[in-house]
Amino acid sequence: MKLYHFPPSTNSLKVRIALLEKGLEFESVVIDLSKREQKDPEYLKIHPFGQVPALDDDGFVVYDSTIINEYLEDEYPHPPLLPADSESRAAVRLLEDYRDNHVNPHFVTLIHEYRKPEEERDIGLIRETQTNIGDAFAALETQLQGREYLAGPFSLADIAYMPNIALLERFQVPLDPDFKNVAGWIGRLRTRASYSATQN
Question: What is d(CA 135, CA 198) in angstroms, rounded to the nearest whole number?
């Protein structure tokens, strides 16, 4: 199994965490986005849209982090990272979709801004984006009421957010101190071995 990824990429991290949670061995193939290696003709044969991550599992290639993690769950179901019943599985997928489309894009904005020299950063955009992230986490505070994890047991939903949680301190994103459920959830995620293993 080969994982084509760029270590700072939040979506690459999402797949690495799932692989670690599954206890699967894989070869790490770094595609350096800063050098635009994702547009190399050889890599485009693996991922036709020139993005990361992509997974080659004994010749079968799959890409898009959410689809990769779904594939890993189907192909390597133990330990399970999706609930057994269809309603709970759909809930996990809705939470992943919320992360992919309403949370992660704000972090991508911050990543792009913080890559710039300090004098070229758009401070107004950074502040606005930090606020947007805080607003997005308000929905998770409600979701976590009475739960240790987003969908009950630890699942692909939680994995989806773990790369973003790792960036909260780095980008000085203040979360509402009243978000007690989110704070407890973040604390639990940070104790997982897969979280620690992907922080370097």
Answer: 26
Overall pTM > 0.90: yes
Note the CATH number of domain 86-197. 1.20.1050.10
In 9-79, the DSSP E strands lie at 27-30, 54-57, 60-63
Report the CATH number of the 2-75 domain: 3.40.30.10
Q: Does an H or E element contain 93, and which? A: helix 86-98
Instruction: Report the C-alpha dihedral over residues 145, 9, 200, 98, rounded to 10 degrees.
Output: 0
pLDDT at 19: 97
Chunked into runs of 10 residues, the chain (200 residues) has average pLDDT values of 93 96 96 89 93 96 96 96 94 95 93 91 93 92 94 95 90 88 95 88
Q: Nearest-5° angle of CA 78, CA 83, CA 86?
A: 130
Residue range(s) in the chain whose domain bears CATH number 3.40.30.10:
2-75
> Strand pairing partners for 56?
2, 61
